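Re: the 458-residue chain
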Amino acid sequence: MDFVLNPDRERFQLTLVMALLVNGRTVLEDFAWAAGVERFANALKEFGLDYVQQGHQLVLTGKGFQYDLPSLLPIDFDEECNVMLWTLASKDVEQIYTFAAEADDAGIAQVASAKETLQKYFKVKAVSDEPAKFTFTFGYDEPSIKKDSLGNVAYIMRNRLLLRGLLRSDYITFEEKSTVHDQWTKMLMYFGVKMKYEGRGMEQLSELERRMMIARGQKVERTQFTEMAETKVITAREYYVPGDATEALAFALLTTISSLPKTAKVCVKNVDLNSSRAGALTCFKRMGASFETVSRRERYGDVYGDIEMFPLNPGKRLQGRRFSEDAIATGVKDYPFLAVAACFAEGETILRLPKECRKELRPINDALAENLRKTGAEVGVYDDGLVIRGLETVVNGSDFDGGEIPEIGLALSVLSIALENDEPVAHREVVEKRFPGILEKLNQVMNLKNEKQESEEK
């Protein structure tokens, strides 16, 4: 049974920004909109992006670095999108910009939140400051580059720094211990931006330097080096936005924990396999899930491919694992799927979250744990994350509530479908909005079991 997934939303949004900066046409092959992305494309129209759908292609026409500058800036997207739009505007430090909303409690709160995010990523000077309207200019100076507890530049800040440097023809260089969500970096390289992006470690040292460091007992850690130089023009290219890795993980989880016949096979097509985005798939593989990449393609500056998924062999179980902060960081939005898998795993699974998001995710972990305990699994919430001891057989569990987090809702929906519950997970509309059509497709997977039963009855 083959499935085509929704395009990866994060990559699609970055593609639209890139298309604006291209001096000419960018053609997206095998095109389909990801949820909410067309609204982002319409926001970029205010900067001069034009697009038209032609059959299975989306043709985008950009304006290069001479794009338009709207004085009223949007504030109603998520943080990643808002920051990229504001970065585009920040190339002009003389123009006056405005955040504005309705003068009610919701509008005042929205402007206040936007101001807080703005001042986190930019240096600005206020022109006027009212409860539901903030007018300002961007400063030329950049905030200092701060690294997180893993030794990396947070990906929203990294994307912003690279975009701003590109617009201002700045020279930029920094090193990180690893990378999280480097699609923008690879996209810049693919479209011809003068960049160097490489791993560095012992191999970069001379033989004398290596011997001296060994003699001193010093350890050379491998780092990721990024360097960007002035690029005057970005040329037009064809591009492709692969399928959502989160949706692929949902299919892999359902195939693994449901009671499908051992001959069942599920294939998801053209999945984003960028390791800094799809890290949760790698973690799930470490737990013993049975899936393989059968068609790996390195095109458009990155990697994607088809994944074939199989039920576990009879008598085999997932295995509990300890996942460190750096492992979870590459799929932090997807850790609820690993938590669901842990309920079925032998032994103990520990999910350690990056320090920067622990406080924000603590109430979310509490809600997730409350849902998962309904299966009978032991689930503990602690300062660093979650600890889960699974069951040999999970047969109970219902009345799940995904709340307002679509990834949690989707993970619990997979659990509910696997347990063949009659009632859907509460707040399923949140899941449908973020991952349109995914629940119907997951229910189709369970048809493999029904078809097997019908065949045996005949």
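The domain at 245-457 is CATH 3.65.10.10 (UDP-n-acetylglucosamine1-carboxyvinyl-transferase; Chain).
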